[in-house]
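1st attempt posting a full record on here, be nice pls
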Amino acid sequence: MPALESRVVPQGAAFQANSAALEAQLARLRQLEARTRDASAASAPLFAKRGQLLPRERLGALLDAGAPFLEMATLAGYCLDNPDPERSVPGGGLVGGIGFVSGVRCMVVADDSGIDAGAVQPMGIEKFQRLQHVALAQKLPFIHLVECAGANLLDYKVETFIHGGSGFYWLARLSAAGLPVISVVHGSSTAGGAYMPGLSDYVVMVNERAKAFLAGPPLLKAATGEIASEEELGGADMHATVSGLAEYLAADDADALRITRELVASLGWNAALAAGGATYEAPRYAAGELLGIAPCDQRKPLDMREVIARIADGSAFLEFKPGYGAATVTGHAAICGMAVGIITNNGPLDPAGATKAAHFIQLCCQSGTPLVFLQNTTGFMVGKAYEQAGMIKHGSKMIQALANANVPRITVHCGASFGAGNYGMSGRGFMPDFCFSWPNARTAVMGAEQAATTMAIVMEGSMRRKGKEVDHEAIAAMRARVIETFERQTDAFATSGRLLDDGVIDPRDTRKVLACVLAVCEEARRRELRPVQFGVARP
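the predicted structure (as tokens):
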């Protein structure tokens, strides 16, 4: 397979400007993630007084030391919990991702009870269910470290209550699919939250700390007049010895996580999987150069082969139909020894490019090769010549192939992702297995200036048709509003806050992240489950 030759000049002014701009965006990302960690860590004195570990300490004790952990959706809820960017605490009240427990690749979720006692947040519900969907699709055991104060009744929204029920639905589906569901209850698990352990296959409870009840003492008294203590209603010892909700009773948080690790090790989950060990060559060019390659001005061109050269094994790339539909780049490569088909953009999608992409998608499905989409497009071409050339039908051909592809699809937003190009390049709406963004990525139906100009033309035409004098000041004000709205929502941090991806990543980590999720997909492909009609019901 031929190796790509880079034409990048790291010492150039443009490279340095791009690198500085992306470094600033990455600093912003790390500052927001640190804000969430610090907000949780501020509860350390209270947790220590209660003899508890903080949520992230629990994760650290559960996961294999030194093994990779892919944390997902770290910006969930950003500027939705609080419109002030300086006060918003992202994350949705959950820490979750894919990691190893006793050598087993698992989906692990921890309620961040250091923040508002783990109270349910609207975007936290969506994040939790996204992690459940990934676990189901990729055949991952699901481990939930539970400590949740329940819904915030002062900020009650009926849609949060209704949509929250889907989390219980997916717990049942995970169990029925043959995937172990494990709840480790560290503290309160109240009302609907009581169904977290109730719908799990295995439950570990921390003695004298864990509580699970449908109605706590205040609600019980309000609803029935009955007076009972928390321990009588739902203490860990009661559930381990009387109700049968808990299988394992732990002395403290650390003991509960030790039990969980031993439980996962006892499942023999990896017994049927052949050992890996493929050898491969590192890219010829440094991953650090990706910061200087991605243009801070999205109107400037970027040859995506330069990106491929820094993520593919040996920088090798066998390009498919390079002379046909040249703005759409397709070809075969490998990432950490795993074969992939890559589809990316050096410009808008035209009829030939869409046809080529559809052909390539079908060929990858024929060979069982996973697809990696590196998005960098302003969309499908428009204009008389392109409409007459069949842009609609050829674009639809690409979307048909994409929507029905039966191989893993992984998407990385590397630059612009505008219009139907977002769809055709496997955007979130087309349900890729995983979707990540670089900090410089921009996603919208179109660019802000194009949207404002379109609306200005429409507004001026409407005034003229009605016989009114054109109000240029009103049009200018409208243009400013449209541009501000688009710019605010186009930013990668804003789209990630709405869970329109699985997280913003450092471009330098692209190869590592792709290798991680490709391995997840490959393991899922090789794993045979024993599904049943119903999830496991406890006695």
